[in-house]
Design brief:
The complex is a heterodimer of chains A (about 130) and B (about 80). Chain A is mostly helical. Helices cover about 75% and strands about 0% of the residues of chain A. Chain A is built from 4 helices and no strands. Chain A starts with 8 loop residues before the first helix and ends in an 8-residue tail after the last helix. Chain B has about 80 residues and is mainly α. Helices cover about 55% and strands about 0% of the residues of chain B. Chain B has one helix spanning about 20-65. Chain B is rod-shaped, with a radius of gyration of 23 Å. Classes of the chains: A mainly alpha (about 130), B mainly alpha (about 80).
Amino acid sequence: MIWLRILTPRAWAVLALAVVVLALFAWAVSSPARRAAAGAKVEAAAAAARARAAGDAVVVVVDGAARDSRTDRLTQETSDAIDALPGARQRLDPELNRAGRHGLCQYAAYRQHPDCLQRPVARELPQADPRR
Amino acid sequence: MPESFRRPIPGAELPPAEADAGRLWRFATAQTGQLDKANGRQADTLEILGRCETRDRATVARLAAPWWRRPFLKEPR
């Protein structure tokens, strides 16, 4: 260990301290930079993913709108065909209509419908036959 | 998720109190159309979610992989 004698023990201590201080300084400088770089990388990846997700959603929404249009067209064509038949004007038993509307008014889809809120449909209903 | 997906699909128009047979069948037809739309909306939602999950998994795998493996991993689409 002759090379240790190049410097005095005090000089070695100072040198060791300097190395430690330098190492700490390098770590302190590089750590936020590393964190910032990693953060930027994640942010860039997230932005790219968001852009791809938006693109995907647009494709799905456009396809869905076309499908809904086909459904509306089919509904219209079927309704027109029904209307064209003489049986379409056949009257229904008013009790049947009342019972049907009463039932529909129980569902969330119609619960807030003005007709369901205004009419006490339940009281208009005949009592169900217990034998059936 | 598209904003329009947050609005519910409405039911068909409530048949009038004095509905005839035609009105009732038209209601049934329209209601079935609305059901088709609602089912289509559900399928679309699952499709978007599925694509997001696949992309997320690929992104996480890329970030978690060692630097020397990243060039060989598939780019998330």
